[in-house]
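dumping this here before i forget
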Amino acid sequence: MTKKFLSLIIVLALALSIAAVSTAQKKDSDKVTLTGNIVDKVCATGRMKKDDPQAAIDSHKKSCTLMENCLKSGLGVYADGKFVEFDEKGAAMAKAALEKSAKDNGAKFKVMGKMMDDKLVVSNIEEMK
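structure:
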């Protein structure tokens, strides 16, 4: 009886250890790092239809992105040929990063976070030099 009980405890401990490692690995794999331009959703959508979307995004003025109507559409990052929208906190961080940038257009940012419900939950934004 004691051997069976001890064996059961060992098996349960092993199973819990495997589950904990699996969960930790999944959390790390959920992390996303994108490098691109911070832009509003309305302008990004329109510029992505151009012949050269990246050039159109690069030439987009930060003053436009910071306009009230553009901000209301939502902010995100245009990276790797697609627009990824930010969560509300990330949008506020992006607005602050744009306001801080000395560049009027073409600034590149490294954005880190996790994808959740088709939005990037932003943990950090830094301008690339």
